[in-house]
# Entry
Amino acid sequence: MVKTITIFHTNDIHSGFANWAKIVSHIKKERDTNTRYVDLGDHADRANPMTEATIGQGNIQLLNEAGVDFAAIGNNEGVTFSKEMLQSMYSQANFKLLVTNLIDRDIGKLPNWALPYWIDEMENGLRVAYIGYTAAMVHFYEQLGWDVFFSLDKLKEIVETVSKKVDAIILLSHLGLPKDEFIAESVPEVDVIIGAHTHHVLHGGKRVNGTLICQAGKHGQYLGKLTLTFSGRVLKHIEEELLDPSQFVEDSSTKALLLHLENQADIALQESAVYLKEPLPVKWFEHSVGPQALCDELTNWCGLDIGMMNAGVLLETLEKGPISFGDIHRVCPHPINPCIVELTGAELIETIERAQTDDIVQLALKGFGFRGKVLGTMIYTGIDIKVNGIHVLGEPVEANRTYKLATLDMYTFGFLFPKIAASSNKRYLLPEFLRDILLSMLKKRN
# Structure
């Protein structure tokens, strides 16, 4: 007897809701008792005013209304919300949060809102195991009181536990495609990996060692549709399709909920945060008061004497008068944290020289937490670039000396500044965002 299971999936929505009401409409229309809907994390992004104002609870309401069955958590949930915020968010969830590899240090086990896996019994009698994994961003999670790990042995242990009880095993992964490929090579008992994190668009999925890996881009550009076909209890065929949401009609109740949440956010963010006695000018390609004041406050926040950040992290000038929390979020929307990095003098010089190039100043960066238009000129505190070289606190840089630098976590993630990324001594200051430092600076100027 032939039986089928349909699983719709989304990943890395990042609070980008342009297609959300259409995605939910199609899931609701096509749903039956042998259909499931899973979300792979990074649904919430605090660059979005609604997510910020509701502290992620609006995203949970949207997932509840969409009828999601299982969800993994992404780094955008795990490391941009505090423990208390996550507790408040997920206590409202009508679905199961699956994450095997996130341990609350206070209790030495998974948080009470999470399960490592779930065995789901379908109406047609088939049983499917869902296992959850999130990205092991160790240094970030440590600062928030979590232990996170990537363990192939732990995954194999769970797979061995469930394999004799189920007809299919699905990994809900927010690990990224390279890790998913590694798992497929190493744990062939996993039938499907529904992935996220790296924003890949995998039309038809990608088969590795007999395992099908799925991923549906980002921001709801596609809705994934996975079909598992069984003969009796034997899995015979797996098919993946990416559906274009622009072809769907909007769901009226989802659209109404989105509008309601956005209106709530507007009201909350209109609350006055501070009063500016004079404007705070912001220019991206030349020195200006706003970015310099923020760089100075960033350096002070980190308890250091030297710091650097790009002017483009401030999106516009703040005018004289009352400044709302919405204004602060609009001007500095990034989920970017302060960071302390140790560099040698030689590495600092190389970093500063790269920062002066057009490749960096004119870069319209996408990702790494940056939600602005262009990086802009580099702003410094305690560092001067003179005709006769670079000076730190009035003295020439010493090539072999170690310096502690206050900066932004986005510089530690890759190609922007290789010496910062490669530093073995980095400390992230969480959970505060750059806009928290901006508010602190504005209050001092009041």
About this structure: The first strand starts at residue 2 and ends at 10. The radius of gyration is 24 Å. The first helix runs from residue 20 to 30.
